[in-house]
Amino acid sequence: MKLPILAYGNKTLKVDCDAIATNSDDLNKLIDDMWETMEHAYGCGLAAPQVGETIQLFVVDSIVMYENADIDERKANFIEGDEGMRETFINARIIGKSDETWDEIEGCLSIPDIFKRVTRPWSITIEYLDRDFKAHTKTFHGTTARIIQHEYDHIRGVLFIDRLSAFTKKLIGTKLKKIMSGKIFTDYRMKQ
């Protein structure tokens, strides 16, 4: 089922989310609904608070980014042998970040039509449970690491615009007000 995506200004987007204690049919349904919602909105990641659930859950699909990149973008944004991945992250915790950083344009389904450069570590190491509650510790690089960090921020109540300078935030202030007032158009359902 396609869920409405919360728009910038909704207080749920600023919540530091709770850990998930156990797997359940309700959790599996939510995960399925999040994948469907993200794909319908042509996203590459979606976090539970974006659909109104304040739990440590997000989904990431960097395969779509790899497939839509030209050869030069693939070389610049993916390490050799990395063609992206699709994964569900439960109770994720970033345990390592590279000193090497890079700037890239980011956007967010909760903040439509705003795209800005954000500086993030090139690689991260993260511990998480997959949708079967199997534990993983993995290192991701480039675009995949960026998407994971963006979604990880969501479960901590941080939006990508929180990482922008005060000057840049001022420049996008009018657009943010339009989003908060519902005066935006998207191909997917938004909720204030």
Automatic annotation (TrEMBL):
The keyword Transmembrane does not apply. Fe cation binds at residues 108, 150, 154. Pfam families: Pep_deformylase. One of its GO terms (molecular function) is metal ion binding. InterPro entries: Peptide_deformylase, Peptide_deformylase_sf. Its EC number is 3.5.1.88. Binds 1 Fe(2+) ion. GO terms for biological process: translation. It is an enzyme of class 3 (hydrolase). Gene3D superfamilies: Peptide deformylase. Keywords: Hydrolase, Iron, Metal-binding, Protein biosynthesis. The active site is at 151. It catalyses: N-terminal N-formyl-L-methionyl-[peptide] + H2O = N-terminal L-methionyl-[peptide] + formate. Removes the formyl group from the N-terminal Met of newly synthesized proteins. Requires at least a dipeptide for an efficient rate of reaction. N-terminal L-methionine is a prerequisite for activity but the enzyme has broad specificity at other positions. Belongs to the polypeptide deformylase family. HAMAP family: Pep_deformylase (MF_00163). This is Peptide deformylase. The gene is def.
